[in-house]
């Protein structure tokens, strides 16, 4: 794939391209048609491939959608050699804090207690910047390579720099809801990545599932890394924290954990991701 070209000017204009590499362009959805194409891609990945349970209306329309789609930005990767819905090959849903009335209006608040995000220790780390919730990430099967993910993340870096974002967060999923199959990877995440207590984001009490099934010194714990979903493994590599407690999502047939990644920590641990972005 050709070397990416990064754009840092005019990003608030409709259709502004964030990153371009060969036939691949990454920008925000600029029309209802493009949003519908993203929803169709999400339906293909989440419901047809991963066997989530659609509502009757979703199944009829062949789209994954909810009310959050109306207030989010939708970061899309396009293959410009394709046309129509086939041109949309990857998507990430982005919800900035400044677009909602309070942290209780983030998608994540349906599963996790975000109250610490409003307290001084958390806000001190944010240094006057805003939070950004990431969600509904997926890539068309034929394009599932590190190159596409890397380009999407380069575009996210452009976005968070432009909008002065201090942290990224959201729900990330482990496949399956049978707790026994996930006890080892959940324990691994708990012991290696758990958030500090003063900024912890726990699962809601009524949905809380324990994560520390094995002790930190369990000799088989290190083997759990390979059992993590690629998305979760990717966040861990970037320097994320994991909130305390998992949540079972029956609709998507997953067990969710809370991902928290401070921008300063991301930049410190992965300075190369910010090359060319000021």
UniProtKB/TrEMBL annotation:
GO MF term list: ornithine-acyl [acyl carrier protein] N-acyltransferase activity
A Pfam family annotated for this UniProt entry: Acetyltransf_5
InterPro entries with a match to the protein in the record: Acyl_CoA_acyltransferase, Ornithine_N-alpha-AT
Class in the EC hierarchy, top level: transferase
Catalytic reaction list: a (3R)-hydroxyacyl-[ACP] + L-ornithine = a lyso-ornithine lipid + holo-[ACP] + H(+)
Lineage summary: Bacteria, Pseudomonadati, Pseudomonadota, Alphaproteobacteria, Emcibacterales
Function: Catalyzes the first step in the biosynthesis of ornithine lipids, which are phosphorus-free membrane lipids. Catalyzes the 3-hydroxyacyl-acyl carrier protein-dependent acylation of ornithine to form lyso-ornithine lipid (LOL).
Keyword presence, Transferase: yes
Keyword Magnesium: no
Pathway: Lipid metabolism
GO biological process: lipid metabolic process
EC number from the UniProt entry: 2.3.2.30
Family statement: Belongs to the acetyltransferase family. OlsB subfamily.
Keyword set, alphabetical order: Acyltransferase, Lipid biosynthesis, Lipid metabolism, Transferase
Transmembrane spans: none
Protein name (record): L-ornithine N(alpha)-acyltransferase
